[in-house]
Amino acid sequence: MPIQDDGNKVLEGLDQCTVFYVRIPSVSGIVKLREDSVPSELRKSMPKELFSLEARVFGREAIRVPSKLTNRVRSKLTRIGTPFLSGYLVAKDHEDEARALIEDCAKEYEQWVQPFLDKIDPLIEAQCDKFPDWAEMIRRAAPTREEVERKLTFRKSSFQVCSGSDQHTEDLKSELNTLPQQIAQEFSALVEHNWTGMHSDKTSQRFRAVLTDIRRKAKSLSYLHPKLRDLVDLIDQVMERIPAVGVITGADYALLWGLRQMLLDPSEILGEQRVLVAQFGAGKTSAAEYAMDEAAGTDEQKELSSVLPEPVILSFP
After folding, report:
1. Local structure of 204: helix, strand or coil
2. Is the pLDDT of residue 192 over 80?
3. In the beta sheet, which residues pair with residue 22?
4. What whole-number distance in Å separates Cα of residue 160 and Cα of residue 230?
5. Where are the beta strands (DSSP E) in 16-122?
């Protein structure tokens, strides 16, 4: 659906969204004491360990907490919003949730930074004690506490895109045009990686968490594409037919498997949203072989038809 500046509902909908930026830095990969920085006459006698001084000083601790927090922000903000302009586009109804998440991460980061900074000077001195002949060079090459502290600044900001402003440049419109496909791909990846357990003729209730995330995100960003609104209705329609407790089998399993297959195809999410529901073929028990069968049914298939409904296609126009 192309984006236009003539009262388009997508641009109007942006007034109801906030873009969040979050940057959680670490000090990994900073190596000042490189071999090419050491005078050639000293290279042969210098311990090789010192060429990775900062990595040795900081160790895995320098990236463990920042990486954990970065993954947490990315995971949760992409569940309620979508990447946009190097940040995350989040609808108003989830703005408080996003702000609370970012504030919690910022507090946890600050609680980690100070103890980490306190370790830098003692760790550097420990290296000097280990290599006393190179102590002066180690101190010159090693980062100071102040240098590291400047790098370890948790950065967060947010802004709103107003539909009546001059911000709607061609680049912005182009970015907006890619969002529906991007969101559909995110849904497919979420289903592929998190909706498992469909490898037989039954499944548990674990799929509900994935569908809840998809439904919530599709509803909050539904102004971006009419098919996102349809997707919410389609999920509701299927969920109304699925038992709320217990193992899911038979016709309910067939319907659920069809929904999962549709969600694995981004083009189908933004297309006809067909949910194919079919009967098991003769001797077939795996979900991988479960599909529409246009050929005439065998006696066994006819017998199974008394258990499963006729193949149907659920879709929205």
Report:
1. coil
2. yes
3. 156
4. 26
5. 17-23, 81-84, 87-91
How does the average pLDDT of the chain come out, rounded? 75
For 102, other C-beta atoms within 10 Å of its C-beta total 23
Q: For residue 241, what are the CA distances in angstroms to 104, 236, 254, 256?
A: 39, 9, 11, 9
In whole angstroms, give the CA distance from residue 41 to residue 44: 7
Q: How many CB atoms lie within 10 A of CB 286?
A: 11
CB atoms within 10 A of CB 49: 11
Q: Amino acid letter at 73? A: V
Residue type, 94: H
244-278 residue pLDDT tens: 888 888 888 888 888 999 999 999 999 988 887 75
The enclosing H or E element of 81 equals strand 81-84
pLDDT at 62: 75
Q: Is 257 exposed, middle or buried (0-12, 13-18, 19+ CB in 10 A)?
A: buried
The half-sphere exposure of 298 on its side-chain side, counting CA atoms within 13 A, is 6
- The pair phi, psi for residue 88, each rounded to 5°, is -135, 125
CB atoms within 10 A of CB 116: 19
